[in-house]
Amino acid sequence: MSDNITESTVPKNFIAAIIEKDNETGKYDGRVATRFPPEPNGYLHIGHAKSICLNFGLAKGFGGTCNLRFDDTNPSKEEVEYVDSIKEDVHWLGFDWDDRLFYSSDYFDQLYAFAVQLIKDGKAYVDSLSAEEIREYRGTLTEPGKDSPYRTRSIEENLDLFERMKNGEFADGEHLLRAKIDMASPNVIMRDPALYRIRKVDHHRTGDKWCIYPMYDFTHCVSDSLEKITHSVCTLEFENNRPLYDWVLENLGIYRPQQIEFARLNLTYTVMSKRRLIQLVEEGHVSGWDDPRMSTISGMRRRGYPAAAIRNFCERIGVAKATNMVDFALLEFSVREELNAHSPRYMGVINPLKVVIENYPDDKTEEFEFQNNPEDPEAGTRMVPFSKILYIERDDFMEDAPKKFFRLAPGREVRLRYAYYIKCTDVIKDENGEVIGTALYL
RNA sequence: AGGGACAUCGUUCAAUUGGCAGGACAGCGGAUUCUGGUUCCGUCAAUCAAGGUUCGAGUCCUUGUGUCCCUGCCA
């Protein structure tokens, strides 16, 4: 872990307000349980940091818990490399899930049993329409859909078909388990959403045990329920899915958390969609997920951004439901602020210009005490040698200097920090008239 | 003639729930500075529109307008 989070104040945002109210009414007996549920299909980026800080911050602020749960229900896109990087990034950001590390795939058996329960209750059925047909039957945003001819299959037939789906008797796409809700619902999400699909690929954790996998809408709410989450915080694009979240839990008759949506982070000049990020990596435009130019947590870490800076940034941007576009300058401010307060200062000369102190003894060497960080006396000091010949940055010297140039120039006197004042009395050039050094006196 | 959500300084988040619209970033001006950094002070700047209720509206009501999300067997 990069550093510790010392403060744990109660967050101030609309979600915290909801939690406070729930605590007052005793809705969850004062219990607060959140979760950060990434799909391990890529590296975490600064947008995830907002969600991490929110979920872990809410838990910490209210004395509750926050689980880390990998939403791994789409084996064709997920890899262990991603789960490893996600764990590392969350830790580095300064948060800890303790022993509460979960995977949606942990619940595959339970999920299957729940699906069977829905079938037995006549609330789910096996559809045998093709993907294209299902799309046609779904209707459009302005027109209602129509029932699949397989919607009225008997419970026995559905049970048999679903079991055979699980046993691998069918090819991908041949059958689909759907919730029986309402094909005419104005909310397209509710038009008999898919619950389970056949996908004959190995899962990074369950291997070839399963060839049917539960969909997000069926998995996420059940996972939240099993983990006794109180406030299921997610981004705005899931607003349309909330009725389905509630429908599944209600019809299963199990514990029901409440889903709360907030606006995801958008940053100026910054690519943040996972699709684009993965494209940059795969097409070799960057050196990897942790390329310093990437908006990933690992990229920012490699770039030198302190975790505390990212946390402060997330604190400053706030949490709301309005679509936003945060100025990158705010992130940079947070980084500078943190770096300024904690970074030791060192010197480096990238493009050297030789300086000879003409009236300084040839063989003398002195050492001066430099502060490692003037902002922080605790950072200590270090000794830096000084002698007749030294090198300065070329940009710090100008032969024809304008008045506003405060660095070294012919006839000008400057102070070498922590050392002497020097004055430029001569300029030495090579045969091409190029400056190769300056001669100075104390 | 679909449904859902959102709308406050340039940006972002607030506003004790009907009582003087505030902070941060960005911008501008100045002071300090052995880092052209930092710090400090000052300053500019907003309630989407039109009606209505009220002593009083960012907040409540009505009607508009604009933006975002939803037609994956992705999450």
Explain what the structure shows:
It is a single chain. The chain has 442 residues and is α/β, with parallel strands linked by helices. Helix content is 31%, strand content 19%. It is built from 12 helices and 16 strands. It has helices at residues 14-25, 46-61, 80-92, 108-120, 131-137, 155-166, 216-226, 242-252, 274-282, 297-303, 307-317, 328-342, and strands at 33-36, 65-70, 101-103, 124-127, 176-179, 194-198, 212-214, 231-235, 258-262, 352-357, 365-371, 381-387, 389-393, 413-415, 421-429, 435-441. The strands form 5 sheets. The chain has a 5-stranded mixed sheet, with no helix packed on it. Strands 4-5-6-7 form a 4-stranded antiparallel sheet. It has a 3-stranded parallel sheet with strand order 1-2-3. Helix 3 links the parallel strand 2 and strand 3. The longest helix is centred in the N-terminal third of the chain and has 16 residues, at 46-61. The model has no long low-confidence stretch (mean pLDDT 95). The chain binds one RNA strand of 75 nucleotides through helix 5, strand 5, strand 6, helix 7 and helix 12.
